[in-house]
UniProtKB/TrEMBL annotation:
Localization, UniProt: Cell membrane
GO cellular component entries: plasma membrane
PANTHER family the record matches: INNER MEMBRANE PROTEIN YPHA-RELATED (PTHR33452:SF1), OXIDOREDUCTASE CATD-RELATED (PTHR33452)
Entry keyword Transmembrane helix: yes
Domain of life the protein comes from: Bacteria
Membrane topology: Multi-pass membrane protein
Keyword Manganese attributed: no
UniProt-recorded name of the protein: Putative membrane protein
Native source species: Terriglobus roseus (strain DSM 18391 / NRRL B-41598 / KBS 63)
Pfam families for the chain: DoxX
Record family assignment: Belongs to the DoxX family.
Residues annotated as transmembrane: 12-31, 51-73, 80-97, 109-129
Keywords, alphabetical: Cell membrane, Membrane, Transmembrane, Transmembrane helix
Length: 138
């Protein structure tokens, strides 16, 4: 199994993505979800989306990131976590472009590309909890 370079590369990239997304959520929760949400909503108020909708999404964001990050780091329900992460990036991009924050949208597009590649290559996900349990397309 450790001779499978594709599986090793996939596991390392999955860990990098998982830890990155986990860190976003964990440290936002640790430093206060309200502080994050209320700070970020100020930028969102420049766009056409209703304040209450933006604020609700921003309050949920750290928990979504935390859950996705844990699942990806472990390689548990990897395919579903990658699909969820992709949909989450689409939602973030919609909000970011509504405020014409093109730099933020570009960063989110980079994350979307990583999610795409990871989902495209999910069959290499053998070094994971899913792989240990014999699950290929979960």
């Amino acid at each position: 199994m450790l001779r499978d370079h594709k599986a090793i590369a996939y596991a390392l990239m999955r860990l990098a993505l998982g830890i990155n997304i986990f860190g976003h959520g964990f440290f936002r929760i640790l430093s206060g979800v309200g502080a994050f949400a209320n700070g970020a909503v100020n930028g969102m108020d420049k766009g056409p989306l209703p304040h209450a909708l933006s604020l609700a999404f921003l309050y949920a964001t750290p928990f979504i990131e935390l859950i996705l990050g844990i699942l990806l780091t472990l390689g548990l329900f990897t395919r579903l976590a990658l699909i969820g992460g992709s949909l989450f990036m689409i939602a973030l991009t919609f909000g970011t472009t509504s405020t014409q924050n093109w730099n933020g949208a570009g960063t989110q597009l980079q994350y979307s590309l990583v999610f795409f590649v990871m989902l495209w290559l999910v069959e290499a996900n053998s070094l994971s909890v899913d792989g240990m349990m014999g699950r290929k397309n979960v």
